[in-house]
Design goal:
The chain is mainly alpha-helical. Helix content is 67%, strand content 4%. Helix 10 packs antiparallel against helix 11 (229-252) and helix 12 (257-276) runs antiparallel to helix 17 (356-379). The longest helix is centred in the middle third of the chain and has 29 residues, at 123-151. The protein is globular, with a radius of gyration of 21 Å. The N and C termini lie far apart (52 Å).
Length: 380
């Protein structure tokens, strides 16, 4: 097991881009198990200490090029694995924001607006909701994903050295500029929404600011919550489910304690969804000492932790709705859990690495529909 100790005085890279541009992968000098390997950069120091794995073994597992066939242009635009290598800077910028991750945040705003009971199908409310979706999806989720890719560049150098940042397809200054523009844009929209809604307390602004801070400590040292599979994945789940829901509900109504508790409970399902993405990064996580759930417990146990978190959470919410005197909503939610379980056995539990995208595309629509069912139940 290897660990990474990063001392970052600024977001500067110099020598690593030369290494990447030469052969698209991180070269680590050959070291024995007992001798630490270190690579020094301008204003930055990266130290890799080998404990259980020889550095040669780690390097040999790194792919040298993009997937066979040149990758998919569609995957590139969505920001998912199997992407074609691109030279157009705007397409690369879009790839870094991972548009495939926007829909859950956009849907969370829809659920919050529905749960408020105060959303009306008029031009003003629709415009407010669309602006809130832009804040939650393209701006703040784009900020989060770009920031995460920036701080994951050493892991990506092992797992996917052909990605935009480790390959040098986009420069350091361009990445940092994108991070700041997306962050400031999202927070600015949040403040505008508070003014538009006539809030005495800028609740949407506070939620955007808090979510942005959570995103930073999730990806960046010294806290880097993602180093711990439990804290990091729950923080990710809360960011994808609770925060956009709260923003949508606060925009059109009032946040209540029961909604806060219920959405945090739903974030445990988000924790399970986050584990799905950890399987494809096991080698890099091991090499750099990140204790993701698959690394800490092994792939077989991690698979069941993942599906258990997703399924048990939804069953618990259905039980809550039944106890609250809303049996039809509870039955609808249970009906939406069934196909998710089917797809778990059909895809994810067979091979979480091979079928991760197919599983998420098949099962997650039923989970997000369940979120809307719950939101509608809470609005009545």
């Amino acid at each position: 097991m290897s660990s990474v100790l990063n001392t970052v005085s600024s977001l500067r890279l110099s020598r690593i881009y030369r290494n990447y541009s030469n052969n698209n992968r991180l070269r680590v000098p050959t070291q024995s198990v007992s001798t630490p390997a270190s690579v020094s950069f301008t204003r930055r120091k990266l130290t890799v200490r080998a404990a259980d794995t020889d550095t040669n073994e780690v390097k040999s597992k790194a792919p040298d090029k993009a997937p066979a066939g040149g990758g998919s242009s569609f995957n590139q635009l969505l920001g998912i694995k199997g992407a074609a290598q691109e030279t157009n800077k705007w397409k690369i910028r879009l790839q870094l924001t991972k548009p495939v991750t926007w829909p859950p945040l956009v849907w969370g705003v829809v659920c919050g607006a529905a749960a408020s009971g105060n959303f009306h199908w008029n031009l003003e409310d629709v415009a407010k909701s669309i602006l809130c979706m832009i804040m939650s999806g393209p701006c703040l989720t784009g900020y989060t994903q770009t920031l995460n890719d920036w701080y994951d560049r050493e892991i990506d150098a092992i797992n996917e050295p052909y990605r935009p940042i480790p390959s040098g397809a986009i420069s350091e200054n361009e990445v940092v500029t994108q991070i700041w523009l997306l962050l400031l844009g999202g927070i600015g929209i949040a403040g505008l929404l508070d003014v538009w809604a006539g809030h005495d307390i800028p609740i949407v602004f506070y939620l955007a600011l808090g979510g942005s801070l959570l995103s930073y400590i999730y990806s960046a040292p010294p806290l880097k919550l993602k180093q711990n599979g439990w804290f990091g994945n729950f923080a990710l789940g809360a960011s994808y489910i609770s925060l956009p829901w709260w923003a949508g509900q606060a925009l059109f109504g009032t946040l209540t304690p029961d909604i806060i508790v219920l959405t945090l409970l739903y974030s445990i399902a988000g924790f399970g969804i986050a584990i799905v993405n950890d399987f494809k990064s096991v080698e890099g996580d091991k090499a750099l000492g990140l204790q993701s759930i698959p690394v800490a417990f092994g792939a077989e146990t991690a698979k069941w932790i993942c599906v258990g978190a997703i399924d048990i959470t939804q069953i618990s919410v259905a039980g809550y709705l039944l106890g609250a005197g809303k049996p039809y909503y509870a039955l609808a939610l249970l009906a939406l859990i069934v196909p998710q379980v089917v797809f778990q056995f059909q895809y994810f539990l067979k091979d979480p690495v091979k079928y991760d995208v197919k599983y998420q595309a098949s099962a997650q629509p039923f989970l997000v529909l369940g979120l809307l069912v719950t939101a509608l139940a809470m609005s009545h």
